[in-house]
Amino acid sequence: MTRSIPLSLGLALSLALLAGPARAVEGTLTLYTSQPNTDAQQSVDAFMAAYPDVTVTFVRDGTTKIMAKLEAELAAGSTPADVLLIADSVTMEGLKARDLLMAHPEADTAAYAEGIHDPDKTWFGTKLITTGIIYNTAATMVPSSWEDLLKDEAKGQVAMPSPLTSGAALIHTATLVDNLDAGWGYYEALAANGAQASGGNGGVLKQVAGGEKLYGMVVDFLPIREKAKGAPVEFVFPEEGVSTISEPVAILASTQNPEAAKAFVDFLISREGQELALSQGYLPAHPDVAVPAGFPDRASIKVMPFDAARALGEADANTKRFAEIFGQ
C-alpha cells in the first residue's frame, strides 16, 4: 500500500518558505502513526524540511497495533510518543474522553468545513478517505446507489470489510445506519442478499479485482490506484453520499515537546501539508486543494454527516448488531 511519489518543486519551495519563521521550534519529536511507511517518511521529511531544528522519528503499524502499543506504555506509566496520526476519529474521541490529548486552540482551521476537526481542537483531520462502491468491469450492473447492492444482480456478489476488524468499516457502518432511511434494515437486506463481510479493505479489493466478487464496499484510493495500474475495477461515489475517515492527528497530553508537536499539527493542516497529501494520492481535507487524478470534482462528492463522539458511545452496540446480522 505504499506510494513513492517525489515532492513537486512547487511544494518543496513552499516548504522552504515555511522554514523561516519555524526556527524557534527545536528538539526531538516522536510520531506514532498508521500511515503506510512511504507516506509516513514523506510526512516526516517534509516537516523537517520546514522545521530544520526538529528531529522526528516515527513508529509505524496498523491503528489497532499502534494503539495497543500506546495503551501498554501508558499503563506502564509513560510513552515516548508526542504525536499520534492514525486512521479514525472514533479512536481519537476515546483518548479525548480520558484526557489523554492536548488541545491546540491556536490551530488555524478557518478554511475547513464543519466536522473535519474536533470542535475542541484536540484532534484534526488530515485527509478525506471515503468509502464507496467498487465493481469489477465484467459486472452487468453498474451501481450508482447503495441500494443497487441489494439487487438480484448483486446477489452473493458483494464483499465488504467487517467493523469487527476495520475501524474504517465501523465508521462506514455507523454512517450508513444513521443516514440511510432503512438504518440497520439496509444491512439486514445485504445479509439476506448474500453479502459477505470479513477482514479489511485490502481483502475486498483483492476479491473484486480478481473476479471472486463483482461488487464491494471499499476505501476510495485503493481501486482508483489499482485501476490506473490496469486492474479491471471501477469506483463509484454513491448518490446518497459516502462515509469518510479523516486520518486525524493529535498531540498527546504527555508530550515533552508541545511546541514542536503543535508545529507538526499546524504543518499537516496547512495548505502546504495538504498539498503533500495530494501528492501522495489522497483527497485532501482542505477544500481549496485539488483532488488526485482519477477522482471526480470535489463538489460532486457528497459526504454523509458523522458524529465521532456519538459513534464512540455506540461502538460496542454497533459491532454487536453487525455480528448478529452477519453471523460473526
UniProtKB/TrEMBL annotation:
It holds the Pfam family SBP_bac_6. SUPFAM superfamilies: Periplasmic binding protein-like II (SSF53850). Keywords: Signal. It comes from the Bacteria. Residues 1-24 form the signal peptide. InterPro entries: Ferric-bd (IPR026045). PANTHER family: THIAMINE-BINDING PERIPLASMIC PROTEIN-RELATED (PTHR30006). This is ABC transporter substrate-binding protein. It comes from Hoeflea olei. The lineage of its organism: Bacteria, Pseudomonadati, Pseudomonadota, Alphaproteobacteria, Hyphomicrobiales.
